[in-house]
Hints:
Layout lengths: L1 E8 L5 H10 L5 E5 L7 H14 L2 E5 L17 H22 L3 E4 L3 H8 L2 H14 L4 E5 L3 H9 L3 E6 L23 H13 L3 E2 L5 E2 L5 E4 L6 H14 L3 E2 L2
Parallel strand pairs: 1-2, 1-9, 1-10, 2-3, 3-4, 4-5, 5-6, 6-9
Antiparallel strand pairs: 7-8
Helix pairs in contact: 1-2, 2-3, 5-6
Amino acid sequence: MLIDINCDLGEGNSEADCARDARLMRYISRCNIACGGHAGNATTMSLSLKNARAAGIAAGAHPGYPDPENFGRTTLALPRQELLRAVREQIQGLQQLAAAEQVPLTHIKLHGALYNDAEGDDRLADDLVGLIAQAFPGLTLLVLANGAMERAAKRYRHPLLREGFMDRRYLNDHQLAPRNMPGAVIEDFTQCLEQVTALATDQPFSSIQGQTLQFAVDSLCLHGDNPQAESIAQALHRALQRAGIGVCR
């Protein structure tokens, strides 16, 4: 059995940051490259693309609110067309560099507050998927399993991958528990591994409210901005191997 693992990368400023990212690439299937909105610049984008090609993993765009000061983690009250234009320009910027490096882009995953806002607003999700379906029909959307973006992608018949999280608790309705809810972030690594194995194998696990949940995902998120990301990736890799699960390459 195989599972896809994705990681948000290219969010630093320097070659050294990209070298750190490259060490994570041996443990993942695809990287989501920051493309100048919340983070990233021409240097980090180009290096991330080169490193992805060398590692043999898929490369995709990771657009967010154009707000590097807050790392794209704060909702911006932008006019809808301005927001859509910013998302389109970020993806196009990475596309141009990818073409120059001869690295095909495969997917798109929204970042931070924009990811969360789209999952909480059917209308925003519909507008974003509509833009992507029109402007980038060949790029698969990486979206929260059971969320608004998944529903919108299905309406547009746009290709998608359903994403699950190893370190976040879920509500009874299969949505992520809000970060400000006590216990929403799983800090015990053993519990993280238990949840990720359940998601990868479509086995039951517990919601934050104590209800049994069961649903499968297509891709698991590994957070690359954690200072311990490399050791977490190694432990995740070993845990999946013990469960008889390989990482897609």
